[in-house]
Write a structure and sequence with these properties.
Layout: H1 15-19, E1 35-41, E2 47-53, H2 55-58, E3 63-68, E4 97-98, E5 104-110, H3 113-120, E6 124-129, E7 141-143, E8 154-157, H4 165-170, E9 174-182, E10 194-200, E11 204-209, H5 214-225, E12 232-235, H6 252-263, E13 267-270, H7 273-279, E14 286-294, E15 300-312, E16 334-344, H8 357-375, H9 379-385, H10 403-414, E17 427-428, E18 431-443, E19 453-457, E20 462-466, H11 475-487, E21 494-498, H12 514-539, E22 554-556, E23 559-562, E24 565-568, H13 569-575, E25 580-584, E26 599-611, E27 617-627, H14 634-653, E28 659-660, E29 665-666, E30 685-689, H15 695-698, H16 726-738, H17 749-753
Parallel strand pairs: 1-13, 11-12, 15-16, 20-21, 27-30
Antiparallel strand pairs: 1-5, 2-4, 2-6, 3-5, 7-16, 8-16, 9-14, 10-11, 10-13, 14-15, 17-18, 18-26, 19-20, 19-25, 22-23, 23-24, 26-27, 28-29
Helix pairs in contact: 8-16, 11-12, 14-16
């Protein structure tokens, strides 16, 4: 009997292809007659293009076209309806208007990538320049719209008799108030944004491009190109990282597709690293203010969390850092959250790696550490004293919550009890060292409208199909694991088939929801295909059970049993002369369950050493304990959590980009000046998962008599939870080591050295 692969350490199904270089990413595909496009970007942030000089580019070798804005031959259009939420608000190169520094204003198409790039460098533009609005402290500020989950951007919950949050704070024994500022951060996925567009005639196009929500992306492309939705096929076979930068349909894919249509040849467009900084989104720069009011023993009486983030004129994304952090984490009778946005002429900002929760968690969990210091209560004990058993904003219970266990297990694994609460108490040669902790929280959502298909084949293998993207996270492997579990056959007999919009629409690879959205669909498709197997067994010629009742049959581990006979599904299919049978999951699966909220949780503990003379901070130990439901692939899950913690360390110590406020130009545009952690920055990270299933999130469960595996149910998101709170744990450890509290990340040496 095969052991279910669920919960075990499973290598990625595509691991070998990736490490040997055999996996083809979007920019690797070729097509006969391929031409290459290169973009020219604006050098002002706001105004109009008044003219171009394209003569030198047109005379350059191999050049086929020089498109300039405003441009009609490209035939690009607006995006409406549900796809508009995943698109920019302007039409690329349609008008002479410039909305941000680094916007595409011209495109060269040539025989080779080098010819296109060289000719693009020869294109110059003249402008009518307006002063850009660039700072989140600028007016006008607008209230943020509702959050992605539909919650209002502003919330004010007051205990009976309390007039305002300010009154609640004023009535508290201890008040902590802190303001936080952080600069822009970038997704910096390893794979550059690349697209290959191949047309059949001028009304059908196949695209190879990375996308996190392929169905929404293809729908957006179809509208941009003025085509019926089914005429766009998107293949996202291998993707080298998403982190939020591949959710939105940016200008690159529509421009490449339009260039190919206009030229009548396939076109490939690969953005430069510099272009990715302005054309594919970033995390908003923002300010946050957190105020905590508590009793002398640290019990919260009031919590207020306000933020101001960017609203670039080309985007509709809502940034709400207090949501799913301050509105969800601690019990408090008085709660106020408020998100505002400043309308700015800057490159589009979008969700990035725990989009709201990572910056929101840094602010809240830093302020909680300050409350621990102010009250003298141990940081872990402080969090347990304010532990919420129902959501503070909605009062609903969680489908599953074991955060208290995360604190206890994490403190034990890390050796938290040995710490000194006194700052600057520990010295080792040149190094001051200390420890810090923080909580992690990330929302989980059920997702409806997606599907999985399973085909049982006469060779006793099964194909599990869904249009989901695997961003490098192990999504294809999860499909194989859950297919093997549900059908009760070894993983070697499962072929996962993903990453193509011709397949059933796959769950979005966003919001840490891919696994818990996909796995129940696999189980349901298995249930349906087994029912179909029984149906053909009793109806088809050649079946030993023809004429019997389907209820006499039982499916178990790839074999149909009944009336004293047994046959594998493959042999039955061969007997009835069928190459395979195919069924999909039921369409309504994944609708919300009223009455519950869903989050993943975790606790981070770390040790940081700060050099007394240079102010350099090094993370030397890290323990993360995560409550992420049932673990499907222990190996990939650990990698996801480690990756999240590394993002957190980058957030705390390294990652930022500066915007030149007078011009709206991003100062950093390469991986030499935008720093992310490298191996030398990262200690061995101790990750532990509680592995407690969340059956309500992924249910409804069967009654236990089902023929399909149910072991795969109960997963919950873990893609982003590691990055929430981890930066605060680092900052809190820096405080414990040095006595210096830094509110404006990253905590670079200059912010420490003058106070050491
Ligand atoms: Mo994620 S930041 O939801 O792609």
């Amino acid at each position: 009997m095969p052991r279910s692969p669920v919960g075990r350490e499973t290598d990625r199904v595509d691991g070998r292809l990736k490490v040997t270089g055999a996996a083809e990413y979007s920019g690797d595909y070729r097509a006969p007659g391929l031409a290459h496009a290169h973009l020219v970007t604006s050098t002002i942030a706001r105004g109009k293009v008044t003219g171009f000089d394209t003569a030198a580019a047109l005379a350059s070798p191999g050049v086929l076209r020089v498109h300039t804005a405003p441009n009609n031959p490209l035939r690009l259009y607006g995006i409406t309806g549900q796809a508009a939420a995943f698109a920019e608000t302007y039409i690329p190169m349609k008008s002479d208007e410039v909305h941000f520094h680094g916007q595409a204003i011209a495109m060269v198409v040539a025989e080779t990538p080098e010819q296109a790039r060289d000719a693009a460098a020869l294109v110059t533009a003249t402008y009518e320049v307006l002063q850009p609005r660039t700072s989140v402290t600028d007016e006008p500020r607008v209230p943020a719209g509702p959050t992605i989950s539909g919650a209002p951007s502003s919330l004010n919950i007051l205990a009976p008799g309390v007039g305002s949050i300010d009154a609640a704070l004023a009535a508290s024994d201890v008040v902590v108030e802190a303001e936080f500022h952080q600069n822009m951060q970038h997704h910096v996925a390893m794979e550059p944004h690349a697209v290959l567009a191949v047309w059949e005639g001028d009304d059908r196009v196949t695209l190879h491009a990375g996308a996190q929500i392929p169905s929404a992306y293809a729908l957006g492309v179809s509208q941009r190109l003025g085509l019926p939705a089914p005429n766009v096929r998107l293949i996202t076979k291998y993707v080298g990282g998403g982190f939020g930068a591949r959710v939105v349909l940016w200008s690159d894919t529509p421009l490449a597709a339009a260039a190919a249509r206009e030229l009548g040849r396939p076109v490939r467009l690969v953005l430069t690293r510099e272009q990715m900084f302005t054309l594919t989104g970033h995390r908003s720069h923002l300010t946050q203010t957190v105020r905590l009011g508590a009793s002398r023993d640290g019990v919260l009486n009031a919590l207020s969390h306000r933020s101001v983030a960017e609203r670039p004129t080309t985007m509709s994304f809502t940034m709400t850092p207090a949501h799913s952090t301050s509105d969800a984490l601690y019990r408090t009778p008085n709660l106020h959250v408020d998100a505002r946005m400043a309308v700015l002429d800057i490159p589009g900002s979008r969700a990035m790696r725990g989009p709201n929760e990572a910056p929101g968690g840094f602010a809240l969990e830093t302020a909680m550490d300050e409350l621990a210091v102010a009250t003298g209560v141990d940081p872990v004990e402080l969090r347990l004293r304010n532990y919420a058993t129902t959501s503070p904003s909605t009062n609903l219970p969680w489908s599953s919550k074991h955060l208290d266990e995360c604190y206890r297990v994490g403190a034990e694994r890390f050796g938290w009890a040995n710490r000194s609460a006194t700052p600057r108490a520990r010295v080792d040669g040149q190094w001051l060292y200390g420890t810090g902790m923080a909580t992690a929280i990330y929302p989980a959502a059920r997702r409806a409208g997606f599907a999985v298909g399973i085909r049982l084949r006469e060779d006793d293998t099964a194909v599990v199909s869904t249009g989901v993207s695997d961003l490098g996270t192990g999504g294809a492997t999860v499909v194989a694991i859950s297919g093997a579990d549900a059908l009760g056959i070894p993983m070697q007999r499962i072929t996962p088939e993903i990453s193509d919009t011709y397949l059933p629409p796959g769950a979005p690879a966003v919001g840490s929801s891919n696994t818990h959205a996909t796995v129940p669909l696999v189980v349901d498709a298995a249930r349906n295909v087994i029912a179909e197997l029984k149906r053909v067994a009793v109806t088809e010629n050649g079946s030993p059970w023809q004429g019997a009742d389907a209820s006499d049959l039982r499916y178990e581990r790839g074999i149909l049993h009944g009336l004293g006979r047994s046959m594998t599904f493959g042999r039955l299919l061969a007997a009835i002369g069928s190459p395979g049978i195919y069924m999909e999951s039921s369409p309504l699966l994944g609708a919300p369950i009223p009455g519950y909220v869903h989050h993943s949780f975790g606790a981070h503990f770390c040790e940081v050493r700060v050099n007394r003379f240079t102010g350099e901070a090094r993370v030397t130990r890290f323990t993360t304990v995560a409550d992420v439901g049932r673990v499907i692939n222990a190996k990939a899950a650990r990698s996801q959590l480690v990756g999240g913690v590394i993002f957190g360390i980058g957030h705390a110590l390294l990652e930022e980009n500066h915007l030149e406020l007078s011009t709206g130009r991003l100062a950093g545009s390469t991986l030499a000046d935008y720093l992310v952690p490298v191996n030398a920055d990262i200690p061995d990270i101790d990750v532990h998962m509680l592995n407690r299933p969340d059956p309500l999130l992924t249910g409804p469960l069967g009654d236990g008599t089902e023929e399909v595996g149910t072991a795969s149910l109960g997963a919950r998101g873990l893609g982003e939870i590691g990055t929430v709170g981890s930066a605060a744990a680092v900052g809190n450890a820096v405080y414990n080591a040095t006595g210096i509290r830094v509110h404006n990340v990253p905590i670079t040496p200059d912010k420490l050295v003058e106070h050491l």
